[in-house]
Amino acid sequence: MAKPIDSAFIQNALTILGIPRGAAVVVHSSLSAFGAVNGGAQAIVDALLHAIGESGTLVVPTFTPQVSDPHPQSPSFDDPQIIRDRQSVPLFHEHLATPMGAAPNAVLAHPDCQRGRHPQASVAAIGARAREITEDQPFIYALGKDSPFEKMYRLGAYILLLGVGHNRNSFLHYAESLVANHRTKLRRFPYMIGNERVWVEVPDVGDDNGKYFPQIGAEAEAAGLIRSTMIGSARCQLMECVPFVDFARSRLEALLVGNL
What we know:
Its EC number is 2.3.1.-. With 260 residues, this protein is an alpha+beta fold. It has one domain. Helix content is 32%, strand content 21%. It is built from nine helices and nine strands. It has helices at 7-17, 40-52, 80-87, 102-108, 130-134, 148-155, 171-177, 213-222, 241-255; strands at residues 24-29, 57-61, 114-115, 123-127, 158-162, 184-193, 196-205, 227-231, 234-240. The strands form two sheets. Strands 3-4-2-1-5-9-8 form a seven-stranded mixed sheet, with helices on both faces. α7 crosses α9.
């Protein structure tokens, strides 16, 4: 059985991997991928915060797909069962848990956490640029123009995958949103306008479902855009978002040629 690792071990490994102090870093992670971690998810969050320092910013996706229409294909708002199902969908609030993993929920529990207000696609952040990154996220194209991902791109942020693959790399959705013939989807969620609960429907870049994103990640690594290491039993990958997004955008333009 592998020896448990702790926060200091993870921090040292992240520094060796190349995370610079003062950086904005968006992290996708799987706690279970590390094996035994003394302190659990909080140890990973502490390691990340120490690695980037007080001038850095830690960002995690805190998506809430549970805030969505359980009958997205049904136009009916009269069927009693559909009405009951839709009424059971929770409204988004800043403390709503995310199914994105233990580390994002540990970030949400941090006293200095800032969280965006998008009902389905919020991000949370701690650090110097947290408010700047999380505030004013548009409902339309939540992962595209003027989103936290575009803000991080402009800041020259880093992308860190901890024990997960590029199918979890949300920056690839941002890259695809820049392609004219990108895939699309509709988001539908409940929202309060005054005292009335209404359903809002907005467009966004579509899901990949493992079709192109893992391939693009492998190609980017082959092109030298990604550094990787093992931390515990987790394969961890670090990349600068600007060259990575530019590469991914170019590849998606070629892969999605027939999508118009």
